[in-house]
Design a protein that fits this description.
mainly beta
């Protein structure tokens, strides 16, 4: 079974001005399962974004249905959580 998935990164430092800073991909057809994606800390134009709090959103149904949302922290020397760092979720993602 496949599903169309969209992944976006948002600037979440200022809750009155949350905006999408990067779309990693849009309506990409994927099989159900676990995936790892890497964000390089850059915006749509390829500029490195300032350190701070960001959020990623994973969507389906042309970006209308939320599959998962979580925070990322961009530091001057990298991103946390690291791409290969395992995290245990409190609830399964379907």
């Amino acid at each position: 079974m496949t599903i169309d998935v969209t992944v976006r990164i948002y600037n979440a430092q200022n809750t009155s001005n949350i905006r999408c800073v990067r779309t990693l991909f849009e309506d990409k057809q994927l099989n159900w399962g676990y995936y790892w994606w890497y964000w390089d800390g850059k915006d749509e134009q390829g500029n490195m974004l300032p350190p701070g709090m960001y959020a990623f959103g994973i969507y389906t149904n042309k970006g209308k249905e939320v599959i998962d949302v979580s925070y990322l922290y961009l530091y001057p020397d990298g991103i946390w959580p690291l791409p290969n760092e395992l995290r245990i979720s409190a609830a399964p993602v379907y």
